[in-house]
Amino acid sequence: MKADLTDLIEVSRKYGSDPDWVLVGGGNTSMKHEGAMFVKASGFELSTISAEGFVEMRLDALKSIWDKKYSADEDKREAEVLEDMMASRAEGQSSRPSVEALLHSLVKGRLVVHTHPSLINGLTCGREGEKILGDIFGDSALWVPLTKPGYILANEIKTRIDAAAAAGKPYPEMIFMQNHGLFVAGDTPADIERIQNKAVSALESRLKRKPAATVGAVDPELLSDFTAAAEKAWGRKLEARAAVNDDILAFSEDDSAFEPIRLPFNPDQIVYSGPGPLRIDDLNGLAQAVKAYTEFWKREPQAVLLRGKGVFTIGDTPKKADSALSLMIDTVKIAVYSESFGGALPMSDELIVFIRDWEVEQYRAKMSK
Ligand SMILES: [Zn+2]
């Protein structure tokens, strides 16, 4: 019998079309039903998703991944787990499940919503995030420290869920992943809403200050000057976007003001806007700064803070430039929110390089083009 995906589609569209919850293809959802799990497929947008956007997977097959022994070699192991994950799809399913499908299978609850909201990530990217989470929610929320994505992250979550159960703690209704985002589980869309609202209001009540609510456009002449300078620096035709508000201007001021946003906070930021933005004092310094950045990161920058002017993003397509801008605006918000949770805690250098090179993430970036 085909499952009724109405509730799943409802929560997916609701949070997928709310920019406070979901940005640029980030976030995914699932529903468990009679031994099956329907999880968002790669390449679909939550805001417009319908039944075709979900892949049916067999929960027993996903569960059997934990009984298997995989290669010690990291790349081999990830490839083997991915293969087993693909083989866990129900017969006739051809879409590629979200890279986070294995995580969904671990979270108990009929409906599971996973998002990367800036407020929540102000906490998960805050130096005191873990402590503050414990103070607010006690055992009803689980903290998962920063680890490599894929099997290692899934294993970390599983270990922590199992340990909480072994200690006789209640099953956590929220899972906060450091430098990443939130998992919430519930039986109905109303449960999801109640739990997420609880998380939001608890965090909001602790805010010392809020990020600027909106961004403004920059002077079109300045944008065209930037585009010309960028095309010269990158050596090809480019799309450019820009935005400005008081927070962006404050971070653009000098190297020490810039520090909280110099390194990326989360995997999505790396995928869509690169391993951290550039900051320059004036456009004359752009070409030199791009060269140094590219040599250091082995990847071109996709975002530039221009002192006193705003943030600029570039891309080979309008969509790429737009995505990079959304992610940079999100980065600025996370940095401001994190001030209330101990100050900005970026991803580790090792993880930044790992995500930059991660095949699955590259695939996701390609799919969403
Ligand atoms: Zn995620």
Q: Which topology of the largest domain does CATH recognise? A: L-fuculose-1-phosphate Aldolase
Number of strands: 11
- State the separation between the terminal residues, measured CA to CA: 35 Å
Helices and strands, in order, run as HEEEHHHEHHEHEEHHEHHHEHEEHHH
- Uncertain ranges: none
The helix-and-strand class reads: alpha+beta
**How many H/I helical runs?**
16
What is the 3D shape? globular
Instruction: State the CATH architecture of the largest domain.
Output: 3-Layer(aba) Sandwich
CATH class of the largest domain: Alpha Beta
What is the CATH superfamily classification of the largest domain?
Answer: Class II aldolase/adducin N-terminal domain
> Radius of gyration in whole Å, from Cα?
21 Å
Bound molecules: zinc ion
- Order of strands across the biggest sheet? 3-2-1-4-7-6-5
What is the count of structural domains? 2
Average pLDDT confidence is 93
Question: Your description of this structure?
Answer:
By secondary structure, this protein is of the alpha+beta class. The chain has 2 domains: 6-204, 3-Layer(aba) Sandwich (L-fuculose-1-phosphate Aldolase), CATH 3.40.225.10; 220-367, L-fuculose-1-phosphate Aldolase (3-Layer(aba) Sandwich), CATH 3.40.225.10. 47% of the residues lie in helices and 14% in strands. The chain has helices at 6-16, 59-64, 74-87, 101-106, 118-124, 129-137, 151-166, 189-204, 220-234, 246-252, 255-262, 267-273, 286-297, 318-338, 349-356, 359-367, and strands at 28-33, 36-40, 54-58, 111-115, 141-144, 174-177, 181-186, 239-243, 278-280, 303-306, 310-315. A 7-stranded mixed β-sheet has the order 3-2-1-4-7-6-5, with helices on both faces. It is globular, with a radius of gyration of 21 Å. It starts with 5 loop residues before the first helix and ends with a helix.
